[in-house]
Amino acid sequence: MLDVKNLGAWYGRAQILNGVSLSVGKNEVVALMGRNGAGKSTTMKSIMGLVRHIDGTIRYAEREVQRNTPHVICRLGMGYVPEDRRIFGDLTIEENLEVGRREPRPDAPEWTQEHLFDLFPNLAERRKNLGKQLSGGEQQMLTIARTLMGNPKLVLLDEPSEGIAPVIVEQMARVIAELKREGLSVLISEQNLHFARIVSDRAYIIEKGEMRFEGSFTDLDENPEISNTYLAV
Amino acid sequence: MGFYFAQLLTGLANASSLFLIASGLSIIFGVTRIVNFAHGSFYMVGAYLAYTLVTLWSGSILGFWVSVILAAMIVGVIGLIIELTILRRIYHAPELFQLVATFGVVLIFQDGTLAIWGAEDLLGPRAPGLDSAVRIMGEPIPEYDLALIAIGPVVLLAIWLLFHKTRWGVLVRAATQDREMVGALGVNQAWLFSAAFVLGSFLAGLGGALQIPREAVSLQMDLSIIGEAFVVVVIGGMGSVSGAFVAAVLISVLNAFAILIFPQISIVLPFIIMAIVLIFRPHGLFGKPGSEKGAPEEPDQPLALMDQKSAMVLMAALLVLALSPLLTADFTSVLMVDVMVATLFAVSLHFMMGVGGMVSFGHAAYFGVGAYGAAMAVKFLGLGMISAMLFGPVCAAMAALFFGWFCVRLSGVYLAMLTLAAAQILWGVTFQWQRFTGGDDGILGVWPAKWASSDKVYFYIAFVLCVGGILALRRVAFSPFGYILRGIRDSQTRAESIGIDTRFHQWMGFVLAGGFAGLAGVVFAFSKGSVFPDSLGIALSIDGLIMVLLGGIHALAGPILGAGAFVLIEDWVTRLDYWRFIFGAIILIVVLVAPDGIAGGIQRLLRGLKGGRA
Lengths: 233, 614
What we know:
By secondary structure, chain A is of the alpha/beta class. Chain A is built from 10 helices and 10 strands.
């Protein structure tokens, strides 16, 4: 479904990613792990077309998309949930969802506002509230719901568990499980090994812009030195 | 009592047209982050088109209103064409670079309008059906003013409905906050930008078209409104339409009463109000923090020390310049003095913008204060040339010390606007304070000392001062102080968190840039023998901006190339008919060919040549 080969990314003259390769299969949840500054978010942004200076190839939906703009990539069925949420603070919850709304596509589940309010009941209660009036956890829910309004086939979920209360993290895990049940593919970036293990099928570990590990969580458990080197704080 | 009420109504009628143009400007800035200097031109063209259409359908009520709407729609289409052919290609250029393109459009429109409608002011007919006055509390009030007072809120309501009840409007509001995210959610930004540009230019055209029964249509309409429109947008908060409405009412009503008490104040009053508002509310009345930021941009490249080859080219160029008076006629020396003055001025502005990260729309203020300082030192203090030349930059630095203290409390476009306000206030004082500054007549007889009075000798004085000033600023850019300034430019929070007093450093940077602009002003004053209020005017400030941006803000050589190109091209084209058109077209071509400025363009060219050989 998504196949990234040799991805390099630059901000100005600084190279952030160096030959990153990864893939996500159909209906698979894949974790991209690494410490702060390892290059997880830049990988996500590069795939979504949000980094101007990249090289390498990104294959998605049977075509190369590394030269496409974000809106074209989105319309091919890729959804992006940014790490810093980027809620439209002066828009209501309903309006935030409206911005994300796209036509349904035949090969992906269709999400409606009501369906999403079932999945995120807290949002339903506050549908007329402005984005900036929401708590961090509610904003995290909203940013996911907003992306789902685009009826994506693949969701890039950047650090969904960061900076929110444990009870919301649990809810987040349920949501990701629900996405998988609906048939979506998910690439999720995570620092938390425990959370990643619960929600995803396999993992990559990135460090200083390079891929250091690729495999199952069993592989990781059998080689504790890997997570000690690249994940432990 | 009736008289004051009438005055209030006049103020409100003025507010309506000001609101129309300012709301368009605000929408365009909010969505595209373009500071659109051409907005005044849209307003002017709207008025001219409406004049032609209304005269065509003269007399009928329906004809009048259809003409007004039609004129606004044509302006909307013109805006669309400009967006599609020019601006769309340069959205990824460095921040504010698009401003250069819109300035090119201003020049082209000035001559285009002149060619089509001629230089004479045109007096439009009164609005049919609204051509008399009604008596309110005994005072005659033009019916048309009452119609205008109603039109403002109606348009505000229409925009509000558009923004809240349509999907397009929701997208526009979302894009005003975070355009990139809107793109990542599948919205074609290019299309959204075009639409916002069309709506914005339509509103400017409408504002212009509605003016024809009230004032003569003239070629000065564009620049006379643009300053005030910017002020309204800034007071209201960039990107906020209702803010623009409140600000337009505030300014127009205060103005209507202020001219009763103190008529001279009317040219500077909007700028004084803006300065006061910004000091208390750094993002305007309804603006959000972050609304001042330009387009998200790649981080600035570190300034590179010159490699040996470029240093040799520079030395050679300086040598040629130094020897030029021996080889060429006097008028070339005079032209070269102009080039050096402009270059020092541009380098000082670049120091502020490129190194200090503080954009100034009013840098001419310090140039002018330097020039006036020297001229008054000669006139009133009887100082000689050398001491006057010292006195001028000190005056400029003092002015920068005063205004800079306020300006560094803001950032982004708000800071730029406050510098503009400062410049306009200084200009207004100079212009009005006849007894002291000579007002419009300026100060004459500011000649160099006898020994320096030949063009060639004066050339060398200018050479020493300007080249010395440029080298000094360059030296500072690479000093620890320069590093701190660049650090603050790249991240104010990080600089603050390592214990740097960011405001103080920016303030000192502001003063330094102002002082060197003053030095340029001093050299200018003695080379011309006189000073006029123009030397603090908005036009000169914009020229400086164009030089810096056109040259390339990310290179130290940028302002040098930009100023050289600007003065030489201007010197050449002003001898031609329709020189503004030609000049504007040249600017647009440079903008499209080299969106990274002349310096960036040359770098790419050299790299291309090297690549070609390898």
